Amino acid sequence: MNGEASAPTSFEGWLRANETPATGLAWLDTQRQSARELVRGEGIPTMKQEAWRYTGLKKLVETRFAPCAETLTAMQPGDIEDLLIPGLDAYRAVLVNGRFISHLSDLADLPDGVRVGSLRSIVESDPDALADILTQVAGEGVHLFSALNTAGIDDGFVLLLSEAQALDRPVELIHVSVGMEEPRVAQPRHLVSLEAGAQVQLIERYVSLGESLYCTNSVAEIQLGRGARLEHSRVQLESPNAFHITGLYLNQAAHSAYKGVNVGLGASWSRTDLVTKFVEHQAECDLRGLYLAGDRQIMDYHIDVEHAVPECVSRENFKGILYGKGRAVFDGRIQVAVDAQKTDAQLSNKNLLLSRNAEVDTKPQLEIYADDVKCSHGTTVGQIEPEKLFYLRSRGISASMARQMLCLGFAGEIIDSIGPEPLREYVAEQVGQRLEKAPMESS
Fold this sequence. Notes:
Layout: H1 7-10, H2 12-15, H3 26-41, H4 58-62, E1 66-67, E2 91-96, E3 99-100, E4 114-118, H5 119-125, H6 144-151, E5 156-161, E6 171-178, E7 184-186, E8 189-194, E9 199-209, E10 214-224, E11 229-236, E12 243-252, E13 257-264, E14 269-278, E15 284-293, E16 298-307, E17 313-322, E18 327-336, E19 343-353, E20 359-368, E21 373-382, H7 386-393, H8 399-415, H9 421-437
Helix pairs in contact: 3-6, 7-8, 8-9
């Protein structure tokens, strides 16, 4: 990418993380060095580029973030108690400012064949365990921020399941951001690898203590072996002053199944890239999402699904609710290769605008190079139907409550697909709270 400013100049603080000493592992140091060179050769993305056309980077670039070098070991379990979901029975891994904190986590009694923990610890204790999988799914990534993450690989979350292994409880990954004296950037790197026939439910939440200014730039690599199944729920509830960037890269082998539900509610500026590639036939991918954006918020989702092999199924269903001067971007692309016959793919994006000043830029795309496929795509942008609002008002329901009920009904299709039940109730409550406070018309 050719930007107007050089990446090393504009991301000086981010690149300090690249000054960390070499690990001594040839395979990891080579990957980090390649990413450094890629960053140095690229400029900052600009709005002249299609992928960033509606998402300005000015404020992000102008904020001089410093890397999160410290590990906040002083935090105690009581400090995050209010962040936990009541009734959720799950294994728990906690990262604070991008660093794995073992004494806040609860990973006792994991069965044989399951490995969950800190990326840094695994690299130090078992150097070759990740050599063949770390960075292999994401590659260079889709933009500069993925390369910045790779260049500074330091810590993150690892979940490895051996063949036919299944967990009886979900695994919950909680990202906690804590404000510092100066704006910080955390760049956790996550790796999930399921061997043939393995099954697990993964819950990923981004939360913060306070309303500080910071940036989270995370990359997750997911590799599903033959017949593996992963149910993955992601909830982004960052500080209202934060920046959030996620690159999720998924490779699926034959007969594997991935169900991902993405909920975006927090952060001032947020971009999520979901990149899926089918590498073997008869795999299924179900991507769903719900985003709410109000004043001072922009939510940006980029979906890229590559059908490179025959007989795979993908479903992409995203909904957005925008109020005040909230903005959203949805850029969804399904590519069907020449040899990917019998592909079945559907892409949908629906948006509900609650004020005249809310805005959404939506662009669903199909690129089809095969002739025996079943594909569709569509998008809608609308307002609450007056007839439905009148019906509820005529039954004695207040205008604000009626609007909230209709919005929850619109979002219900996505919320109802979230599991387990305590997480579903948690998301519904968070959505309801934001709708209750949302002005229906901006002044």
